[in-house]
Amino acid sequence: MLKPNKLGNKNFLSSLDISTEELFHILELAKNFKNKVLNIEFKRKVLGLIFNKSSTRTRVSFQVAMSRLGGTTIDLNPETSQIGRGEPIKDTARVLSRYCDVIAIRTFNQTDLEEYSKWSAKPVINALTDLEHPCQVLADFLTIKEEFIDFKNVVLTFIGDGNNVANSLILCGALLGVEVRIACPKGYEPNSFVIKKALEIYEDKNLLKITNDPHNAVVGANVLYTDVWSSMGEEKFKENKDKDFNGFTIDKNLVNKANKDAIILHCLPAYRSKEITDEVIDSSKSRIFDQAENRMHAQQALLACLLS
Ligand code: CP
Ligand code: NVA
């Protein structure tokens, strides 16, 4: 029976924290958890959740994944804990790691997440920061693998803001050698450090393309992916961003320019009729709800590795 392997890094703060081999291992474990052929238990283990931003999928999929492993979850609401009062991260992290076995954190700055991991004796997981969303892309590549079996010749085109989700797609794409194209308006390109790191990993540097032309970017693509134009915390920029992203909607016209076998992904939550039309989300090409389900299987696999 497949067994979860301990990962080389204690934490999962970034897609860069795992190797290509470890990524394949997590995807394989996730597939086995999904097919119910694995029964691995971490009885009495406790996952702490700290969410400084809202969440439906990440919160619930972590809770269910942990319960499927026989463990429990504590949802630490910053409003009702001392986190919201501004207790220093180094104190919170040291205390929580005396109670919990692993901690998943959703926050704004990647440096705050790093501060938690510095002071926590237990593994820390990035449940989304402004810079990355590495748990999301584990589920995304699981969904892509289910569709295309392997990653050879897969072309993933992301149309939207080059922030957290796009950054993690780029890094994971580099680990897997998948062609990743990012189509975004000028000024919304992915993080330059992420691009630099990805180019260090890619054997074929031509597999990463950043463009401002969504129409060209979808030609030959097998996966079309989008995310909200205004992320959590950017509500005040919404009106301006809606204007800047005009022409970057995934609609039927754009889908028709992609490969015939193309599937549609969206991390959700969506602003229907902004970054993607109703028709496309609900079309037969959409794998968006399988992708959402896969958050749970991928995180169950990740937790099993981190707790091993
Ligand atoms: N995709 C995602 O992370 O969704 P939530 O914000 O609902 O967790
Ligand atoms: N980019 C989005 C992702 C939501 C899952 C955000 O940060 O709000």
Provide an overview of this structure.
The protein is of the alpha/beta class and 308 residues long. The protein folds into 2 domains: 15-132 and 295-307, Rossmann fold; 136-291, Rossmann fold, CATH 3.40.50.1370. It has 12 helices and 9 strands. Strands 7-6-5-8-9 form a 5-stranded parallel β-sheet, with helices on one face. A 4-stranded parallel β-sheet has the order 2-1-3-4, with helices on both faces. Helix 2 (57-68) crosses helix 12 (288-307), helix 5 (134-148) crosses helix 6 (164-176) and helix 6 packs parallel to helix 7 (192-201). It is globular and about 55 Å long. The two termini are 15 Å apart. The site of norvaline has 9 residues, from helix 6.
Quickly name the level 1 CATH class of the largest domain. Answer: Alpha Beta
- Distance from first to last alpha carbon: 15 Å
The number of domains is: 2
User: Ions, cofactors, ligands: which are bound?
Assistant: phosphoric acid mono(formamide)ester, norvaline
Instruction: Please identify, by name, the CATH architecture of the largest domain.
Output: 3-Layer(aba) Sandwich
Largest sheet: 5 strands, parallel
* Helix content percent band: 40-55%
Low-confidence stretches: none
Q: H/E series, N to C?
A: HEHEHEHEHEHEHEHEHHEHH
Strands side by side in the biggest sheet: 7-6-5-8-9
Global structural class: alpha/beta
How many individual helices?
A: 12
| Global outline | globular
